[in-house]
């Protein structure tokens, strides 16, 4: 049995990502982007926002990225998942930081968006993979 271990290094700094990386290398991830993240480019730097209340800050991350002239992308939730029938009629593509990280790291390992989205998008968001709906 072969087990792979992935280690992620994290550095903290007071400097802005705008000062650390070329603008054309930065992709700001926001659920409000019109651009779908189709693959992870190892030459790009992906910015994961950290907003808590999606209703008060609607489109804040998109506006911030546009003001900084950055590329934007959203996770392909609509492309691979369907809205689940639920009593609250609640559906949200806004994920917590740890959920986005789970999606991205699983995709990086598996190269499968369905597997990645299954790993990171909780059923409480109102989206499921098509086969899970049945």
From TrEMBL:
GO molecular function: tRNA (guanosine(9)-N1)-methyltransferase activity; tRNA binding
Biological processes annotated in GO: tRNA N1-guanine methylation
One Gene Ontology cellular component annotation held by this UniProt entry: nucleoplasm
Domain of life: Eukaryota
Span of domain SAM-dependent MTase TRM10-type: 1-128
Keywords in alphabetical order: Methyltransferase, S-adenosyl-L-methionine, Transferase
Record's catalysed reaction(s): guanosine(9) in tRNA + S-adenosyl-L-methionine = N(1)-methylguanosine(9) in tRNA + S-adenosyl-L-homocysteine + H(+)
EC number, UniProt record: 2.1.1.221
Name used for this protein in its record: tRNA (guanine(9)-N(1))-methyltransferase
